[in-house]
Amino acid sequence: MTASPPPDRCRLVLITPAGLPAPALKAGLAEALAGGDVASVIVPQYGVPEPAFQELAEALVPVVQAAGAAAVLAGETRIADRVGADGVHLDARPDMLGEAVSRLRPRLIVGAGAIRSREEALACGELQPDYVFFGRFGYDTRAEPHPRNLALAEWWAEMIEIPCIVLGGSAVGSVEAAALTGADFAALSQAVFGADADPAAAVATANALLDEKAPRFTG
């Protein structure tokens, strides 16, 4: 069977939340991935000790990959190799990011996050990561995306070819504002995995909104 080509517009990225027991998170993630197109799933460490994070990654990475999405770990880079993940996500520290880019690419995806300004974004871009991320894990507590993240994504998308991800808000509909920046990817976490969310329905709704509202990429 030939896989369907990815949509020619902003795609969805999921970010797993903190605090859920591994079995519940695994079940919710499987439901979410069954809801429609997801480009990748970022699994942050959230300060969890390395052994526990590796155990969590071992449970989640196969679920993500079975759905055809990329599994990206945000935390200790050695764990990505141990569990067969597709990539790593690092804070925007030039020394750490530069070392990871030179050591891990192209074998693994290397992404850069925790970017708070244009200057930090440009410094990261010079190191040629696979993507930059505008937002902070766990800070999608309001319905709409943070205005700073939207402004950074719009500026970046107009100037730089390296793909960017912008964090949406706690409402599924926030993917529209994220997509209208020209970002390559819109990320959701609480909107999909929050206490009152239906993960599959949230992903389906997000994709329907992106199909309707997101600009089409050309060339």
Task: Summarize the helices and strands and which ones pair or pack.
Elements: E1 11-15, H1 22-33, E2 40-44, H2 50-66, E3 70-74, H3 77-83, E4 87-91, H4 94-104, E5 109-113, H5 118-125, E6 131-134, H6 147-159, E7 164-167, H7 174-180, E8 185-188, H8 190-193, H9 199-213
Parallel strand pairs: 1-2, 1-8, 2-3, 3-4, 4-5, 5-6, 6-7, 7-8
Helix pairs in contact: 1-2, 1-9, 2-3, 7-9
- The succession of helices and strands, N to C, reads EHEHEHEHEHEHEHEHH
**How many structural domains in the coordinates?**
1
For the biggest β-sheet, the strand order reads 1-2-3-4-5-6-7-8
CATH class: Alpha Beta
DSSP, total strands: 8
**CATH architecture group name:** Alpha-Beta Barrel
Helical fraction equals 40-55%
Radius of gyration: 16 Å
From the 3D structure, determine the CATH topology: TIM Barrel
Q: Summarize the main sheet.
A: 8 strands, parallel, barrel
**Strand fraction band?**
15-25%
C-alpha end-to-end distance: 26 Å
Q: What does the average pLDDT come to?
A: 94
Specify the CATH homologous superfamily. Aldolase class I
* SS summary, helix count: 9
Describe, in plain words, how this protein is organized in 3D:
The protein is of the alpha/beta class. It has a single domain (11-213), classed as Aldolase class I (TIM Barrel, Alpha-Beta Barrel), CATH 3.20.20. 43% of the residues lie in helices and 17% in strands. It is built from 9 helices and 8 strands. It has helices at residues 22-33, 50-66, 77-83, 94-104, 118-125, 147-159, 174-180, 190-193, 199-213; strands at residues 11-15, 40-44, 70-74, 87-91, 109-113, 131-134, 164-167, 185-188. It has an 8-stranded parallel barrel with strand order 1-2-3-4-5-6-7-8, surrounded by 7 helices. Helix 1 packs parallel to helix 2 (50-66). The protein is globular and about 40 Å long. The model has no long low-confidence stretch (mean pLDDT 94).
